[in-house]
């Protein structure tokens, strides 16, 4: 049994629980995924399965390289490949499919995705710097970076110094989101709260590793 799936963020909405409370949820189109390869401790040094998600149509499948065509074998070519660790590798077979039924209502999951890209941004927006005073007499540097190092020592800028640059478009993981509903007929799950990225972005949903 897999401990996770690949899917796409559909968007956010809200539902009402049994107590009449409004709950914000994110709808995720999860799976199905097909096992394309098994990795074992004897051969690769660890137990895991590689799965494919989002099957390509016939025209695009013809453009897949010969190497990948051989890798997929009898399975259909997919847009995405991803690995998931498994505890019992013998229980999973190549060609086997998994869908949203691996999750249950009330279960906690971790969701990983790529955050929205917001282009070039300064330190105030990107790193939440306070900025300088905007009072009378302050000439410049209101939203500037300020000092980034000394001259004599260290005579360089330290690594990871917070500076202006590309904001967003980073891999983000949200831990311990509750599964509010599982709808196998639609192939979607509803999780409480927000997840990274815009609608349509690829996400990874897996059973929580730090669930309380």
TrEMBL record:
The lineage of its organism: Bacteria, Pseudomonadati, Pseudomonadota, Candidatus Lambdaproteobacteria. This is Large ribosomal subunit protein uL3. Gene3D superfamilies: 3.30.160.810, Translation factors. The keyword Transcription does not apply. Residues 130-152 are annotated as: Disordered. Keywords: Ribonucleoprotein, Ribosomal protein, RNA-binding, rRNA-binding. It comes from Candidatus Lambdaproteobacteria bacterium RIFOXYD2_FULL_56_26. It comes from the Bacteria. Part of the 50S ribosomal subunit. Forms a cluster with proteins L14 and L19. GO terms for molecular function: rRNA binding; structural constituent of ribosome. One of its GO terms (cellular component) is cytosolic large ribosomal subunit. One of the primary rRNA binding proteins, it binds directly near the 3'-end of the 23S rRNA, where it nucleates assembly of the 50S subunit. The keyword Cell inner membrane does not apply. One of its GO terms (biological process) is translation. Belongs to the universal ribosomal protein uL3 family.
